[in-house]
Amino acid sequence: MTNGQLEARVRELEAENEVLKLMLRQKNTRNAGRKPYITSTTVDKMKKMRDDGKSYASIGRAFGVSSTTVYNKLNPAN
Description:
With 78 residues, the protein is an all-alpha fold. The chain has helices spanning 3-25, 40-51, 56-63, 67-74. The termini are far apart.
């Protein structure tokens, strides 16, 4: 290989290295892990029920989750 070819190959490898670095910085690129059970629509329904005077326990029973889960979804800890 000539000097020019080597320099071109080095630039090519450096560009590929930058792409790989970016890929490593991304979180969960293959969408692995447990999917959220409670969606934003479900949280909206929970809020409506709570506004109607339902208890956390009764809302939890309606959605198949614990009262603590309902409380945590309706009162996020920032």
